[in-house]
TrEMBL record:
Organism: Alkalibacillus flavidus
Cofactor(s) in the UniProt record: FAD
PANTHER family with a match to the protein in the record: 64 KDA MITOCHONDRIAL NADH DEHYDROGENASE (EUROFUNG) (PTHR42913:SF3), APOPTOSIS-INDUCING FACTOR 1 (PTHR42913)
Protein's name in the database: NADH dehydrogenase
Keyword Flavoprotein: yes
Length: 406
């Protein structure tokens, strides 16, 4: 009898954790496992704001897939997924195609631009290593240019971050740390630099603990962040953005517009005909799609609703990793001819967001609030725990944030 084949698409948190679990749980004689990813590295999306600001080199964030996936047990295909045909069980790649018996979709997120004029063409998105590196280079280049011009080119040293969700807040936190270094490096007067965080809603981090949000905003304001709340980005051009507040429009000139105001699931999933909401498939409790018994979705391409809930869990790395456990367990069952699958049970251990090097806010164990250095240490503990889980002590020592106090 032919061995069933399992194909995992994407080596983000969901995909790589599913693969490393499968390689431990499923023997060579039970199934063939294939992992497809655009690059030969996995990256920690949760550190991209540091790469974009230039406070952490992107080589710290990415790690070779071969260091954590055993290529004797898993067939690794470095290629780009173009489309999925679930009726014929075929995945089209840029450079060929693959057939499968079971598929795991873990293609992650993209920036959602909500149809805002000019945003896709002119704003800089933060969603992978390449886009983060481009933001770092853009800002450095614009600072380097500032002194070349005779006229005061304020737009070159005005940085606009759209959205004050967790991504926007973490990014302005890092930028606030980086700007003094950039000023020193490129002879720019720090008092001239503007760092704006534009948010459509009445507060940053809507829905998060109010006391911690206040702490975060105060700390960031002290470091030079200008919050523009109740202010909607309406359009973006190569010269900056137009915002609207209370029906009044204003133009903000900036050559550094970074859009961090929302995400959606990878559009390949929608384009392949799966039914989605904001690019995410509303998966069954066992993480399979509603229509296909052989297709699982993990991470940001999946919307998981607890039974009876109106809203899905937010797309986070924490959820993506936990989904990997369930998907791997259920795949093992199916491969072994068992049709009893387990339901996904999210276990939210907390949320911690960084505000720059040694500052952060967080809530852990349901209601324990953390802020300042203790929250920052907790954030590093969470990051290190992930590396330990993924690649053991070796990976932790190579890539971990071991200096807790910096
Ligand atoms: P991703 O991490 O998006 O990975 C997708 C993978 O698929 C990548 O390897 C990519 O190269 C690959 N891929 C994409 N398209 C293709 C294709 N066509 N062909 C082949 N391969 C492809 N969440 C938290 O829980 N805690 C945090 O502290 C946190 N911080 C964050 C900070 C930032 C700056 C951002 C942007 C997000 C943060 N998140 C955090 C959210 C978290 O990063 C995402 O929820 C998580 O990355 C989703 O994981 P994933 O496995 O779905 O996919
Ligand atoms: P988000 O959707 O959580 O926040 C986007 C923000 O942008 C919202 O506050 C929204 O009001 C604002 N916005 C939308 N359109 C706008 C417009 N036109 N003008 C101005 N503001 C606008 O997105 P995110 O922050 O990228 O987070 C995505 C996911 O990643 C979330 O699930 C989040 O929890 C997770 N994440 C977690 C962490 C962490 O745990 N430390 C860090 C980053 C991201």
């Amino acid at each position: 009898m032919n061995k069933p084949s399992i194909v995992v698409l994407g080596a983000g948190y969901g995909g790589i954790m599913t693969t490393t679990k499968l390689q431990k749980m499923i023997g060579d004689t039970e199934a063939d496992i294939t992992l497809v990813n655009k690059h030969d590295y996995h990256y920690q999306t949760t550190w991209l704001h540091e790469n974009a600001a230039g406070t952490l080199h992107h080589d710290r964030t990415r790690l070779p897939i071969k260091d954590v996936v055993n290529f004797n047990k898993v067939n690794f295909v470095q290629d780009t997924v173009v489309s999925i045909d679930p009726d014929n069980k075929v995945v089209k790649l840029e450079d060929g195609e693959l057939t499968y018996d079971y598929l795991v979709i873990g293609l992650g997120f993209e920036s959602a631009t909500f149809g805002i004029e000019g945003l896709g063409e002119n704003a800089y998105m933060l969603n992978n290593i390449n886009s983060a590196r481009r933001i770092r280079d853009l800002i450095e280049y614009n600072f380097a240019q500032y002194n070349i011009y005779k006229e005061d080119r304020q737009d070159l040293i005005t940085i606009v971050v759209g959205g004050a969700g967790f991504t926007g807040i973490e990014l302005v936190g890092e930028l606030a740390n980086r700007i003094p270094e950039l000023c020193q490096e490129y002879d720019v007067d720090p008092s001239k630099v503007r760092l704006l965080n534009v948010e459509a809603g009445p507060t940053a981090l809507a829905g998060f603990d109010e006391e911690l949000v206040e702490y975060a905003m105060n700390r960031l304001e002290e470091k030079g962040v200008e919050f523009r709340l109740n202010t909607m980005i309406k359009s973006c051009s190569e010269n900056g953005i137009i915002v609207e507040k209370d029906g009044e429009q204003e133009e903000i000139a900036s050559k550094n517009v970074i859009w961090a105001a929302g995400v959606r699931g990878n559009s390949i999933v929608e384009e392949s005909g799966f039914e989605v909401g904001r690019g995410r498939v509303a998966v069954r409790q066992d993480l399979r799609t509603p229509d296909y018994d052989d297709v699982f979705v993990v991470g940001d391409c999946a919307a998981f609703f607890e039974e009876g809930a109106e809203r899905p869990f937010p797309p986070t790395a924490q959820i993506a990793m936990q989904m990997a456990d369930t998907a791997a367990h259920n795949l093992k069952q199916l491969v072994n001819g068992q049709d009893e699958l387990e339901g996904f049970e999210p276990d939210i251990k907390g949320t911690v967001a960084s505000l720059g090097h040694t500052d952060a806010i967080g809530v852990i164990f349901d209601d324990k609030k953390l802020y300042g250095r203790s929250a920052s240490i907790m954030k590093k503990v969470i990051d290190n725990r992930y590396l330990l889980k993924l690649g053991g002590v070796g990976l932790l020592l190579k890539k971990g944030k071991l200096d807790m106090y910096h």
